[in-house]
Amino acid sequence: xxxxxxxxxxxxxxxxxxxxxxxxKCKYCKSEIDKKAKVCPICRKKQKKHHFFGIxxxxxxxxxxxxxxxxxxxxxxxxxTGEVKDFFKKGEVVELNNIKTTFIDVxxxxxxxxxxxxxxxxxxxxxxxIENNSEDEITVSSLMSFDAYxxxxxxxxxxxxxxxxxxxxxxxxxxxxxxxLQGIIGYEVKKxxxxxEIRFSPSYWGKDIIxxxxx
Length: 215
Fold this sequence. Notes:
five-stranded mixed β-sheet, five-stranded antiparallel β-sheet, elongated, 16% helix
């Protein structure tokens, strides 16, 4: 082979040789395949791309929208005077996002029909009235919408306590626009309790209305 033929052969090999860095591994069989291949020629499986960037953008948008919803909430205020307060007392009508809430009364029982609290405890029922004056229906859940603290301690609801007054309904319902819901939440607490703090959230995204009651 003369010099000219050798140079031409080398040039041909150089042109047909795969450039370094232009291959990738198949996501399934790990074979080396063309970087632009959409289907592996070995295992015939599609090479799916991970759209992490697009997912991140969507999450950011969702968080931003949630933040706007929360930031646009009204402050809880006295429905009669318009006064904004940190907390409200029994009997006061509170308005938040066109939803009016009233902590009507507190009732205490030593027994609840066939149920009896532990020694040294009593059943306490808290009654509320909720008026939906917004344009949309709202869902009220006695477990999800309310948090209670007796003398500063978080207190779980007591299903047994509800039996103390079976004429009143539990606060669990969907309230249509322009409609109302009245009902009770029950707790089992120490007999010598002094203060109740109940937090009600008309919206899972929004602010709480805080009610406080002292014996």
